[in-house]
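ok trying again, last paste got cut off:
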Amino acid sequence: MPEILLDTSFLLPTLGVEVEEISSKDLETLGAIRQRTALCCSHVSFVEILGLLGKSKKIDDAAVGMGIKSLFASGTYKWVAPSSSAIHLALELRSKGHKDNIDNILYATAADSGMLFLSLDKELKSFLQENGYDSDIIVAIKDLPRRV
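nice, full thing came through this time. structure:
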């Protein structure tokens, strides 16, 4: 069963945060492939989530609380941790100029674990291509059904 690591953007709707680039059809796509894939998340995403929620003036505490419980207790997601080699790769990406440490860790975790990485981040993909890293593991939501 293929494993797909979700970028933080794909966790936000569960917390009641609308992401402009993610449509209800995109969320349906994730639901549809759930039976034949393992949807994976990393606790590292919560660093980014807390930053985004902390800046927002429109936080629904009840929705966020229910969303956090759902992320952990629903059984929908497999929670993964970066290995030491993934952290080393993330540091390498940082030292070569990619400044988003969360994306570096998420990408490195997916690459090290043989997962696809579902991400909206075109800048990361471009950086990886320019620096000779495997950007084929980054998949857009529209391409996901044919990749799994």
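cool. The helical segments are 24-33, 45-55, 61-73, 84-95, 101-113, 122-130, 144-147. Residues 3-147 form a domain with the Rossmann fold fold (CATH 3.40.50.1010).
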